[in-house]
Amino acid sequence: MEHLYDCIIIGGGPAGLSAGLYAARSKMDTLLIERAKYGGQITTTDELDNYPGSIENCTGASLSERMKKQALDFGVKFAKDEIVDLDIDGAIKVLKSKKETYRARTIIIATGANPRLSGFNNERKLRGRGISYCATCDADFFTDLDVAVVGGGDSAITEAIYLTKFASSVTVIHRRDALRATKSLQERAFNNPKIKFIWNSIVVGAVGDEILEGLILKNKITGENRKLKVDGCFVFVGYEPISQLFKGKLTMDDRNYIITDEDMKTNISGVFAAGDVREKSLRQVVTAAADGAIAATTAESYIEEK
Ligand code: NAP
């Protein structure tokens, strides 16, 4: 018979690591399963200046490393694995990967979200050949070259500013005439001489056979198309929740974010969700970490009541 954990956390980003810390501190026998990189999306963020206390060159990677160490020190066990099937309706939750079956009294889903594709022609074909979704990973390849950033939210503007450390020019292409990003980020971008803006425009296609040579832009007001010669294109048009595995089992909104109450309870008892995978209004590291803490505390109360 497989080991029965008090709590299994799926996902090792800020929500999962924070849940692990709180669960282990309350002496729950806790396993955290992560299929890729601990830290999740924040590992691709160079500057992290809005997580309280993250000063003096705190990067996403350094913060997640410290979060992981803290959880480990309190006794969280870690497994590098990918859950592919589950049975979570009963009192014992069963999670299956290709090689293992895991069992737990409670589970916390902290699977996060993935970058969304913009949907223009050749986007998939030239992904990794000039088109990127991670500035921290790829900015270096574009040193002294011209790059474009697609999107007008916090991600697009944060990463556009970061890219100016490498590229000779950064052109932000936004589908409206006003940015969605926080005002302080907007100010920094508008004051950065390396950043230019193309407003009211969308990318309809990428040009290039083996490698990106340029973008075809469509002006939404005039309907005119133009070519923009760039060596790189970074797409930041939002995220999609990683919730496929739970479809048909958990209640979700129309964009597949898992619906929870304020205690992170889903519609199935003993199953909790935390962080970017759940339906909420502010997706930040600080709210993910808070969700994780609440989910673990609610999971502990659930076990006590049982
Ligand atoms: P977001 O806030 O949803 O912004 C997505 C941007 O992409 C919007 O400007 C949107 O335009 C545009 N867009 C969406 N679909 C598009 C398409 N098909 N073609 C062209 N443009 C498209 O996403 P995000 O910037 O990734 O941020 C996600 C969450 O993480 C937010 O809650 C954000 O605050 C948070 N975040 C925070 C920070 C930070 O605080 N430093 C950094 C990164 C992310 P419209 O504006 O017209 O809708």
TrEMBL record:
Keywords: Disulfide bond, FAD, Flavoprotein, NADP, Oxidoreductase, Redox-active center. SUPFAM superfamilies: FAD/NAD(P)-binding domain. It is an enzyme of class 1 (oxidoreductase). Its EC number is 1.8.1.9. Its cofactor is FAD. Gene3D superfamilies: FAD/NAD(P)-binding domain (3.50.50.60). GO terms for molecular function: thioredoxin-disulfide reductase (NADPH) activity. The keyword Oxidoreductase applies. Residues 5-292 form the FAD/NAD(P)-binding domain. It holds the Pfam family Pyr_redox_2. PROSITE patterns: PYRIDINE_REDOX_2. Homodimer. Belongs to the class-II pyridine nucleotide-disulfide oxidoreductase family. This is Thioredoxin reductase. It comes from Clostridium lapidicellarium.
